[in-house]
Amino acid sequence: MKLPVEVNEQSQEPIYYQIEEQIKALIVSGSIPAGTALPSIRALAADLGCSVITTRRAYQNLEQHHYIKTQRGKGTFVQEVDVNERDLMKEKTVTEALQRAIRTANQHDYTEEEIKTLFERVLREETTDA
Fold it and tell me: How far is Cα 121 from Cα 50, in angstroms, rounded to an integer?
C-alpha cells in the first residue's frame, strides 16, 4: 500500500513529525481503516526519499499513542480507534493545526482581523476545491 503522505523539506516541522501527523490524520479520518497493513519502515522511507531512522521514529510515536501496532514477522497495522476518541483526536488535530497557523501569522505581525480575513479566504478556496 502506498500512503498519500508527502514531506516538505522546507517546512520548519521535522520530517518524522510531518509523516506522523499525516498518517495520524489518515487513521483518525477513517481513510485508512483499522486492520490495514501499512508499508514497512524501509518501503515508506524509500517512497518518501528520507531515512529509515526518520520513518522509524514516526512509526514508534504512532505506536506509542496506539494508532498502529507492529506484529513481529507480520507487519505494521492500523489499530481500532474508539469513535469518541476518534472525534476527540480529530478536534485536537485540527485545533493544533489552527494554533500553529495562528502562531505563524502572529510571527509575521498579522492582526487578528487580518488572520480572520486570511482564514476565511483559504476556507472558501478549500471548500470550492473539494
Answer: 34
> How distant, in Å, are the alpha carbons of 6, 41, 44, 121 from that of 21?
11, 16, 15, 24
Contact assessment for residue 66 and residue 80, using Cβ atoms and an 8 Å cutoff: no
What does the pLDDT read at residue 76? 97
- pLDDT tens, residue by residue, 27-61: 988 899 999 999 999 999 999 999 999 999 999 99
- Cell triple for 24: 495520524
pLDDT value at position 20? Answer: 96
| CA dihedral of 94, 96, 98, 101, whole degrees rounded to 10 | -140
Place of cell 531512522: 53
Spatial distance between the Cα atoms of 69 and 72, rounded to a whole number of angstroms: 10
